[in-house]
Amino acid sequence: MDDLSLSPFRAAVETKDFDRVEATLAPDVHFRSPVVFEPYDGRPAVAALLRVVGEVLAPEFVYQWQVRQADREVLFFTTRVDGRDVEGVDLLRYDENGLVAELVVMMRPASGLMAVRDAVGARLASAG
What we know:
With 128 residues, this protein is an alpha+beta fold. The chain is 36% helix and 38% strand.
């Protein structure tokens, strides 16, 4: 894949097709974020979390740019949650099969990050 093409992960997120997002994840994918203390591990856990996060971020979520080098990709995004502008990056590492082996999400500013945390937390609490 050259640097100008969309990764399957990005294409799936942009179409808000979370079955496709799940299909891009390696079975032992590892997810980290400044919002969660413990990482999420494994396709089922990470896919379930990404569905909830996707519901929170989706209305105004847009990838603005990407950089890819070898097995690493950075996707810069913007969105708006509860009236707060949010900027962030998805830092991805792919395995030898081209599946997402590691996903680290970073967001700013702190007020936007907290808005995302609160909205995701509320959805997770109401789901289980």
